[in-house]
Each structure stands twice: as structure tokens, then as C-alpha cells.
């Protein structure tokens, strides 16, 4: 019997199984839909759709870096036990590599991307993992850089991806570690939106300890406080975590400039 795409789609919709598994099941039973559903249930492939209704609050941040690009991804599951499972770690790191090499525009595009190893779309690979691991698995977000890229992952919970304008692997790794620890929001002052500074200024101006100060004095005090707050949020102005006597700007001077970075915290 000729197995049509419509039949495969119907079986996938009913079971949540991957495309290739649905087609194989239909071929095995000569197109009988009910028997194909039974085959998939026996193989554990028909439970993925039910698991997708659960909450996936745990997971892992993974990354991949090559000579020309790098990527970081957050993949979620239901329990910390599964997040530490070797199969889940392999999946996360493999997806990070696929993001780096295939350059999908968003999560939907990544799900439609064919994995070189399996020859199946990522969406189908994930459904198979759900069946084998027994938990809901979702891709939450990813980021990809080109050029000189470095990364650091801390216990799968915090991840950093960094792009610089020159190559220095050791220094770049130290900067990634610093970003993971100190959580800067911007590279430098020029990256801070005016709205952020305005908001902080309004907050400081409204604080009780300045209420009785003359307006000009209050303005100077607020300016100083806001400057200090912005310095704490800018990477290049932060004291280096390994040597607080030195700022990041001093550390990288003459070696490279920081183009951009992303910092992921699992579940944030």
C-alpha cells in the first residue's frame, strides 16, 4: 500500500510521534491506522504529546564554539535529575552545535532543521528523546555569534557567549568567567539606553534622604549615584573578578575589544 504524507500527518497528530517513526509504523502494518498507533505505543513513541503538557522548569545551558562562530542554547526539561543525564547533556550540546553550523533564525526554524547525524528534523529528534527519557523537553532560546567567539558554562545553569575583535583564547575565557560571576548588563556606557539612565535618575531623585536637599545639590548627588550604578552594570568598568584592583577595561587594553556578550541563567 502507498503510504501518503496525509496518512503520516494524521498518525503524527494522533500520537505525537516523529515523522520517520510514523511512516515506518504505517509501512509495517500496511497502512492500518489503528495498528500503527498500537505499534508506536509499544515502542513508546506515542507518549510525547501527553508529556508536552507538563511544565519544563529545569534543563541546561549548553554551547559550542568553532574557529569562525559560536552558539549558546537553553534546553528545558522537568527535573534536575534529567538535566544531569548524559543523554540530555549530549542533546543540548548537539543542538548548540547545530545552531552554530546551520544558523537558524529562530526556535521554529531550528525545530525544522535536519540533524546531520540522524537525518531527521530536530522536532522529531526531540520527540524521540521525550519518549526515551520520559520528560517534556523544549528549546527555550539560543544565540549565535560569528568571528572570535568564546564561551563558559557553569554547571549547566549559567552560560556566557562572548565576541571579541581579536583572538586571545585565555583572556577571552577569563572574561566569560567574569561575566558569569558578575552579571554585567552592558559592554560600556555607550550601550546603555537613555531610558535606563532616566529611570534610575527618577528613582534616585525620589529617595527620602535627598528630600530636604537644595535642588542643585540634590541633582549633583543623584548624578554621582547614577554614575556609580551605571559603572556597576557596565562590563568594562567592573573590577575583574580574579583581581579586583584591575578593571576589565584595563585587563583587555591593547589586547582586544569586546564586541558583545550574552549571559543566560537557566529559567530566568
How are the secondary structure elements laid out?
Blueprint: H1 5-15, H2 19-28, H3 33-42, H4 48-51, E1 58-65, E2 69-77, H5 80-83, H6 86-102, H7 107-112, H8 122-133, E3 138-146, E4 148-154, E5 158-164, H9 169-182, H10 194-205, H11 215-233, E6 239-240, E7 243-247, H12 248-252, E8 258-265
Antiparallel strand pairs: 1-2, 2-3, 4-5, 5-8, 6-7
Helix pairs in contact: 1-2, 1-3, 2-3, 10-11
Explain briefly what this protein structure is.
This protein has helices at 5-15, 19-28, 33-42, 48-51, 80-83, 86-102, 107-112, 122-133, 169-182, 194-205, 215-233, 248-252; strands at 58-65, 69-77, 138-146, 148-154, 158-164, 239-240, 243-247, 258-265. The mean pLDDT is 88. The chain is elongated and about 85 Å long.
Amino acid at each position: 500500500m502507498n503510504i501518503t504524507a496525509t496518512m503520516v500527518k494524521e498518525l503524527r497528530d494522533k500520537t505525537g510521534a516523529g515523522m520517520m517513526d510514523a511512516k515506518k509504523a504505517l509501512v509495517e502494518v500496511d497502512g492500518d491506522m489503528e495498528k500503527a498507533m498500537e505499534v508506536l505505543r509499544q515502542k513508546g513513541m506515542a507518549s510525547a504529546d501527553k508529556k508536552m503538557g507538563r511544565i519544563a522548569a529545569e534543563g541546561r545551558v549548553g554551547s559550542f564554539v568553532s574557529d569562525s562562530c559560536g552558539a549558546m542554547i537553553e534546553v528545558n526539561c522537568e527535573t534536575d535529575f534529567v538535566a544531569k543525564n548524559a543523554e540530555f547533556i549530549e542533546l543540548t550540546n548537539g543542538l548548540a552545535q547545530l545552531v552554530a553550523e546551520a544558523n537558524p533564525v529562530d526556535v521554529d526554524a531550528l525545530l525544522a532543521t535536519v540533524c546531520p547525524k540522524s537525518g531527521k528534523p530536530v522536532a522529531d529528534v526531540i520527540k524521540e528523546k521525550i519518549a526515551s527519557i520520559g520528560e517534556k523537553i523544549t528549546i527555550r532560546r539560543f544565540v549565535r555569534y560569528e568571528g572570535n567567539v568564546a564561551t563558559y558554562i557553569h554547571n549547566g545553569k549559567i552560560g556566557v557567549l562572548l565576541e571579541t575583535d581579536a583572538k586571545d583564547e585565555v583572556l577571552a575565557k577569563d572574561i566569560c568567567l567574569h561575566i558569569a560571576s558578575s552579571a554585567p548588563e552592558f559592554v560600556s556606557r555607550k550601550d546603555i539606553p537613555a531610558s535606563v539612565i532616566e529611570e534610575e535618575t527618577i528613582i534616585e531623585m525620589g529617595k527620602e534622604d535627598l528630600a530636604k536637599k537644595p535642588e542643585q545639590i540634590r541633582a549633583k548627588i543623584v548624578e554621582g549615584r547614577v554614575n556609580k550604578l551605571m559603572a556597576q552594570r557596565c562590563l568594562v568598568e567592573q573590577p575583574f573578578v580574579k583581581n579586583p584592583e584591575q578593571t576589565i577595561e584595563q585587563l583587555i587594553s591593547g589586547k582586544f575589544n569586546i564586541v558583545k556578550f550574552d549571559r543566560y541563567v537557566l529559567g530566568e
